[in-house]
Design brief:
8-stranded parallel β-sheet; 8 strands; 19% strand; globular; Aldolase_TIM; Ribul_P_3_epim-like; Ribulose-phosphate 3-epimerase; carbohydrate metabolism; isomerase
Length: 216
């Protein structure tokens, strides 16, 4: 099965954001990936809901919203109001993760959980049956354009084994340093969805790059 491709608009040209979103609309990408950063959980600030309302209005693809923030449960109504398909929260930011996952599902969105590079896959044992998707960060979150962390491929294999062992239906998504070379290895290891930022938006032909990633 072809991987789901989710271009990350964190790497888009914000001077021409509408143009870049229209490119994603035309492309073979399945989702639009949105990284929300608060400058607290991660050392950077991205964009807030006024910008995201504009993105939601323009996008014809489902929104894959990734909250790299503390207390993400406070913003469930705002993410729901965007019409988001997936609301993705960090394991490390949610001491009551099971409750947050329930709240996201009750709001009518697909709940997903993200783990940072230093967070072991084994910690998902007790939540893996309750989530729609797990996102493995293959760079340290907070900035685009970072170098791919090689151990991420093994983490995908470990997560695939956990999913199969528990009978979970969770998808595996990977974000950070994804390109044609790393993407091929991640898909081979069991990844279902690839988030691509610089690889897409810095390419001479972004639509062609999305097509190539889709064929991995």
């Amino acid at each position: 099965m072809k991987p789901i491709i989710a271009p990350s608009i964190l790497s888009a040209d914000f001077g021409y954001l509408a143009k870049d979103i229209e490119m994603v609309n035309r492309s073979e990408a399945e989702w639009v990936h949105i990284d929300i950063m608060d400058g607290v959980f991660v050392p950077n600030i991205s964009f807030g809901f006024p910008v995201l309302k504009y993105v939601a209005k323009l996008s014809r693809k489902p929104l894959d919203v990734h909250l790299m923030i503390v207390n993400p449960e406070k913003f469930i109504p705002e993410v729901k109001a965007l019409g988001a398909h997936t609301m993705n929260v960090h394991y490390e930011a949610c001491p009551h993760l099971h409750r947050v996952i329930q709240q996201i599902r009750e709001a009518g969105m697909q709940p997903a959980v993200t783990i940072n590079p230093a967070t072991p896959v084994a910690l998902l044992q007790d939540i893996i049956r309750d989530v729609y998707m797990v996102l493995i960060m293959s760079v340290n979150p907070g900035f685009g354009g970072q170098k791919f962390i090689e151990h991420s491929v093994e983490k995908v294999r470990e997560l695939r084994a956990l999913i199969e062992r528990t009978g979970s239906k969770a998808l595996i998504e990977v974000d950070g340093g994804v390109n044609l070379e790393t993407g091929a290895r991640l898909v081979e290891a069991g990844a279902d969805a690839l988030v691509a930022g610089n690889a897409v938006f810095a390419a001479p032909d972004p639509e062609a790059m999305i097509r190539q990633l889709h064929e991995l």
